[in-house]
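During the second year of the project, the team shifted from modelling isolated chains to modelling whole assemblies. The rationale, set out in the original proposal, was that interfaces cannot be judged from single-chain predictions alone. As a representative example for this report, we include one of the complexes processed in the last quarter. Its constituent sequences, exactly as entered into the pipeline, are reproduced here:
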Amino acid sequence: MIPAYRSRKMMAAPHPWEKWRMGTVAFAMHRASGVVIALYGITHVMVVSFALAGEEGFNRLMDTFQQPWVLVLEMLLVAVVLFHMLNGVRILLFDIGVGVRHQKALFLGLMVVGAVVLTLTVIITLPYIQGRELA
Amino acid sequence: MSAWGWLLQRITAGIVLIFLAIHLWLLHYVYLGERLTFQRIEERLQAPVLWTAEGLLLAAAIYHALYGLRGIAIDYRWGNPRTWTWSLTVVGVAGFLLGGYALYCFAS
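Output from the structure prediction step:
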């Protein structure tokens, strides 16, 4: 489980994974969320490609994916995507040398933005989770 | 190879950031509450600007996702990096052709 980029000399220093600081947690969550989104993305392309098999079957498939319990899962997906997107913004800013000194405040600020967007998304989706018919 | 791969990972991150926001806004938020059907998706994707944007999102997202997975595999020393590179390239090209063809079916 030792990442390849660590040389033998660096082995003496504590491994980043040993101390669960904010940056470490953000790094681990970025990877975990990335894997989840990649798996969703592969499924998404495959599901949409069922359109090639004909309109009838595709419409029936789309109906199964618009049931309330799927919408609940989609809200979880929105949360995961928002985290990955906003933490990604933090990484891109660090790459151009912006905000490294204030990384904790930047992380928390971006997470507040994410929480607000997630809340708004849940609010507009809630009626359909509670069973409102689609037009 | 590696430095360019890294740079392209950042560039595709920016593309996905912008075009995923456009995708969610113009294809989902605007049509909130409408039942999804083949015909409706067809109508939504008629504008050439929109399906071009979708195609770009597809390509950028596939690169970003697969380069990320490759990075994790190499970090943990799972398998051979070169094997990951070519096999994921095959997966990515296949995914783009599949998704691109589905997009073409809706747009044309």
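Chain B touches chain A at residues 10, 13-14, 17, 20, 29, 32-39, 41, 58, 61-62, 65-66, 68-69, 72, 74-77, 95, 98-99, 101-102, 105-106 (CB under 8 Å). Chain B has one domain: 3-107.
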